[in-house]
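Reviewer has doubts. Consider these tokens.
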Amino acid sequence: MIAGDSRRERKKAQTRAAIQEAALELFVSQGYRETTIAQIAARADVATRTVTLHFPAKEDLLFADDPFAPESLARCLHERKSDTFAVLRDWMHTTMRALDASDLEQEPDPAQLWRRRALRAQLLMEDDDLRGRARAGYRDLELLVAKGIGSDIGLPADALIPRLAAVTVVAGLREIYVTREGRAKAQSAASELSGLVDQVLAFAEAGVRNAGM
């Protein structure tokens, strides 16, 4: 990539991040449904069309660009040399460290990123439609985790234990942001949340082990 292309991509990413930041601030202060695209554009100091070019649907402002994407986990599971829980642990920690590092380019305090994610989680929990959309979006992750755990213990992905473990993992990771511990630790960098990730995975792993698998 030539220097001009690199600058354009950087500028595009900065604009996209500024729009999402403005949207989140407004969603939190006045409500998701009450916030208009025009208000978001004004807060981000861009044209309304710029917002819709980056985010064609309003809900995309909350769901686009999730770094914990199924495609990313699928690659790690495909290349794995250890069990699914170990892959999950490494994937989560690696992604969180990368987020801290990339956020430093835009924001000198990496804790800002995790505060934003905590606010996003709060918004999703408070709105039935958004919560349903989020739940549907996590299905691909659940299926990947169930398939991996099932392979580890010699059961099909749709057997009860792999499915229970997968739902526990994905729901637990999602709930971190809205727990008392998660809200407190979201004032810091990703490293502070890593221990909660380990607790979720250990809880699910113990469930599989205690089931005799």
